[in-house]
Design goal:
This protein is mainly α. Helix content is 80%, strand content 5%. It has 8 helices and 2 strands, in the order αββααααααα.
C-alpha cells in the first residue's frame, strides 16, 4: 500500500515537472517555463542590435546627403515614416512614443523585479543559493544588454529626428 502511494506521488511529481518545462528539439535542451523570458531577452538583444545598426547606417546616409548632396534633401524627408510624424507632434505624443520605444526595457526590468518577489522563498530553498546567484547574474547581464541596446536605438531615433527636422527647415 505504501509503495503504491509512493509510486503515485512520484508519477504526480514527474507530471507536474513536465508541465512547467519546454523541450527544444533542435537544441536538445529544456527550458523552465518561468525562465522563458530569459531566452526571449537574448532574442530581443539581437533584434535591438540589428535595429540600432540600421539606424546608425541611416544616420550616416542622411549626414552624407546633407553634406554632399543637399539637393536630395526632399527625397530623404519623403523616405521617412516614423520620424516625420514625431517631428511636429505635441509633447504628450512625443512622450508616449518614447515610452513605447523603451517598452522592452520596462518589460525586462519588471520581469527581473518579479524574480525577487518575497513570495518565492521556496524557489531559493529548492534550487540552492549557488544556482540562483548564477541565474541572477545571467539575467542581469541579459537585461543590461537589452537596456543598453534599447537606449541606443532611442538615441539614434532622436538623432535621425533632429536631422530630418533640420532638413525640413532648409526646404
Amino acid at each position: 500500500m505504501i509503495e503504491e502511494v509512493d509510486l503515485k506521488m512520484k508519477k504526480f511529481l514527474e507530471k507536474d515537472i513536465e508541465t512547467y518545462i519546454i523541450k527544444i528539439p533542435l537544441l536538445g535542451s529544456t527550458v523552465d517555463i518561468n525562465d522563458l523570458w530569459l531566452v526571449s531577452g537574448v532574442v530581443m538583444f539581437f533584434l535591438l542590435y540589428f535595429l540600432k545598426a540600421s539606424m546608425v547606417q541611416e544616420c550616416l546616409n542622411i549626414k552624407y546627403i546633407i553634406d554632399h548632396k543637399p539637393e536630395l534633401g526632399n527625397l530623404v524627408v519623403l523616405n521617412q515614416v516614423v520620424t516625420i510624424s514625431a517631428a511636429h507632434a505635441n509633447p504628450l505624443l512625443k512622450a508616449f512614443q518614447r515610452w513605447i520605444a523603451l517598452s522592452p526595457t520596462f518589460l525586462y526590468l519588471y520581469l527581473f523585479y518579479k524574480d525577487f518577489d518575497p513570495r518565492q522563498v521556496g524557489y531559493f530553498l529548492l534550487d540552492g543559493w549557488f544556482f540562483n546567484d548564477g541565474q541572477t547574474l545571467i539575467e542581469g547581464v541579459t537585461i543590461a544588454l537589452v537596456v543598453y541596446m534599447n537606449f541606443g536605438c532611442l538615441y539614434h531615433h532622436l538623432r535621425i529626428q533632429r536631422m530630418i527636422s533640420g532638413l525640413r527647415e532648409k526646404l
